[in-house]
Structure prediction request, 145 residues.
Amino acid sequence: MAMSFDSYMKDMVKPMREDLTRLGITELLTPEQVEEAIEKSKDGTLLLVVNSVCGCAAGQCRPGVAKALQNDTLPTYTYTVFAGQEKDATAKAREFLAPYPPSSPSIALFKNGELAHFIQRHQIEDRSADMIAGDLIGAFNEYCK
Prediction:
C-alpha cells in the first residue's frame, strides 16, 4: 500500500501544527489570509510565527512561544504560517518581514501593521525556549500595551 507524499507530510506535520494551534494561534493557509491578518493588525498588535519541521522549531521556538503566551500582556492577534507546507502563504508573510531574509522558524511582532520585533532562526537555534520566551515577553510588554 503506497501513501502519497502529501498525505505523509500532512500526517507528519500535524503534531507540529498543533503545538501552536492548541494555544489558540490561527493558521494562515493562503496569501489572502496573510494579507487580511496584516490588515487587521493595523489597529493592534499581531504575533506571527513562521513554523517549521526543524529541531530548533520543536525544541526552542514553539515551546518559547507557548511560554511567552502565558504573559499578562499579549498581542491582539496570533497567527502562524508553516514554511515548506503552505508555500504561497509563507511567501506572502515573508514580504512583510523585509528587510530580513527568509528564516524558518522565526517570530515576528507587528504593531499597527508595521514590523516592530523580529526573531530570526539564528536567534532561535542557539537559545533556550526560556530565553526566547523572555525576548518575546519583553517585546509584548513594550509593544502590546
